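A quick aside before the break. I want you to see a complete sequence-to-structure record at least once, exactly as it would be stored in a machine-readable document. Don't worry about memorizing anything.
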Amino acid sequence: MIECVYQNETNKMVIVKCIGQNNFYLEKVVMPKEFFWFEAPKEARLELWKMSPQGQMLDIRGYVADHSIKRDITTETAYAS
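That is the input. The structure line, written in tokens, reads:
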């Protein structure tokens, strides 16, 4: 599992669907300008659905790895103020 984040940069709500192996499924409505943090299998697919007058419409299909939160532990240090 990897940590991921998606930000809805549009002015309409988006439905995020994440589909992976072993029956992994995650679905969330993300409002405009909202962030959505989630964990998903590294190989999972990510689908972004937008609403249209006819209903849901697939807008983008990709991989969760494109939205992963990459951390470099060596650069993360705590400083006393």
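Two observations worth writing down. Residues 2-71 form one domain. Residues 23 and 44 are 11 Å apart (CA to CA). We'll return to this after the break.
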